[in-house]
Design brief:
The chain is mainly α. It has one domain (36-469). The protein has 15 helices and no strands. It has helices at residues 3-63, 67-103, 107-141, 146-159, 163-178, 184-205, 215-240, 242-251, 257-288, 293-329, 333-360, 362-369, 377-410, 415-439, 444-469. Helix 10 runs antiparallel to helix 11 (333-360).
């Protein structure tokens, strides 16, 4: 009888020790997974930053010419990049479905999904080219300044051709991300930014005997850099994943309608969500251009900072989507929820730094893109300071809405986010912005207050959706 308490105590201690070991194992697994997410997201960030840095380089170069050129290239970049990111979102299903196939040991399906991704990219590009080339006609109906309209049309006519190499690059990138071979993105990114800067110097200003093409030179440089990036990544994929590459070549010309439809069916809501968001930015920019080149230039400068915040959330979100899809396929909702909170925490820290920059030193941002001696500098600086103050208020919600949307894609929840996007971006954002700006006569700042309301509304609702979908049963 005296032995019973001792045995009971030993049993309790054993159970507690097992529980402690399980908790330690869970914490260790979570930290390892956080490192995996960062390991995927940082190279992705390098790639996305290269795309944005190419745009920032273009803005910096043409900004030396004046506010009209800065306004034209900024709006052109916003339009083309909006369609491009929409395509990225549709094609993100390549990584989600490939990750599931890999987790379930179906390597043949990985190749099949990647091949169909290439065909889907072509289908995305065709309407994109038509829409971009028709944009100058629409701006003409909005009574844009003639000088600005001429520059916009010249830029869009050339830069639109970067869509196909950029989207094919995205397909290869998604494949390498699933294979956990994303480190090459950093090399490609650095090369792209350097080459783009050099080409801009040669083609925009006409150095070393090259013709001075102005904004057209910036567009030609962008197209060439995207072709070069695609070539480098394809060669790396061929060298590092030879068996998959050989299978890919054998199936390249084969359309699998069922798989193509699955990618399209799952990707279209995600693409629609991104189109709603990108369209939101594009419409705000097009409307503010009615007030003149200085306002549009200021809009483009502040949006450039917002783009940096956007791509950080985008890279983190894409990495989380892949890992969340993996753990969702493994039926581990506890890890899914930990990953979601990790993403929100990292994004909050980064966004706070950018908010402080906008609030404390907005003039630094303008000076990055414009020479103080350039035409229209003083007005652009004055307007940019106003818009930077508004932007700082909604920046955290901008990051969270991007992050949340991608995490929900990893959970294959793509329909409800579209409904949130319609309500937040367009009804609250564009609707109120147009009312404040044109209906109540507030002017350009009214558009940005609508901007702030729309992004805040969408961001908050999407976070609530993630919390609901990641709640363990």
């Amino acid at each position: 009888m005296n032995d019973i308490p001792a045995l009971t105590l030993a049993r309790i201690l054993w159970q507690h020790s097992r529980l402690d070991l399980q908790l330690d194992s869970t914490v260790t697994s979570a930290y390892k997974e956080y490192k995996t997410v960062l390991g995927i997201s940082l190279p992705l960030l390098a790639y996305y930053f290269s795309e944005v840095a190419i745009g920032l380089t273009d803005l910096y170069i043409v900004g030396q010419l004046g506010s009209v050129e800065l306004a034209a290239v900024g709006l052109g970049k916003t339009i083309v990049f909006g369609w491009l990111v929409m395509g990225f979102c549709i094609l993100s299903m390549v990584s989600v479905l490939s990750a599931e196939a890999l987790a379930q040991d179906r390597p043949d399906d990985v190749t099949l999904i990647v091949v169909q991704g290439f065909w889907l990219a072509v289908l995305i590009v065709i309407p994109g080219i038509v829409i971009v080339l028709l944009t100058p006609w629409l701006l003409r109906q909005m009574n844009y300044e003639a000088a600005m309209l001429t520059e916009i049309e010249a830029y869009l006519t050339w830069v639109v051709w970067m869509l196909i190499p950029a989207l094919w690059f995205a397909v290869v990138r998604n494949f390498l991300t699933v294979m956990k071979k994303a480190s090459v993105f950093l090399v490609v990114s650095i090369a792209a930014v350097v080459v783009n800067y050099l080409l801009n110097q040669l083609l925009v200003f006409g150095r070393l005997g090259f013709p001075a093409l102005g904004v057209v030179g910036a567009a030609v440089a962008t197209v060439f850099v995207n072709l070069l990036s695609l070539a480098i990544l394809v060669m790396y994929a061929w060298a590092s994943e030879r068996q998959y590459s050989l299978d890919f070549l054998r199936q390249l010309l084969v359309l699998r309608w069922q798989r193509l439809w699955e990618l399209t069916r799952l990707g279209l809501p995600a693409g629609a969500m991104q189109l709603l968001e990108s369209g939101f930015f594009i419409v705000i920019s097009m409307l503010i251009g009615i007030y003149g080149a200085a306002w549009l230039a200021a809009n483009n400068v502040v949006l450039a900072v917002i783009d940096v915040n956007f791509i950080i959330a985008l890279a983190m979100g894409e990495a989380l989507a892949v890992r969340i899809a993996y753990y969702k396929g493994s039926d581990d909702l506890h890890m899914v929820r930990r990953l979601a909170w990790f993403g929100y925490a990292v994004t909050a820290v980064v966004t706070l730094s950018i908010m402080l920059l906008l609030l404390l030193r907005p003039q630094w941002v303008v000076e990055l893109f414009m020479n103080p001696e350039a035409e229209g500098y003083a007005q652009t600086l004055e307007y940019a300071v106003i818009l930077a103050g508004i932007a700082a208020l909604f920046l955290i919600f901008d990051g969270y809405q991007v992050l949340s949307t991608w995490m929900l894609r990893g959970l294959k929840d793509t329909v409800v986010p579209v409904m949130i996007g319609v309500g937040g971006y367009w009804l609250a954002g564009i609707g109120l912005g147009a009312l404040l700006s044109f209906g109540l006569g507030i002017g350009p700042t009214g558009l940005w207050w609508g901007f702030a309301i729309g992004l805040t509304t969408a961001g908050a609702l999407l976070v609530l959706r993630v919390i609901k979908k990641t709640r363990p049963a």
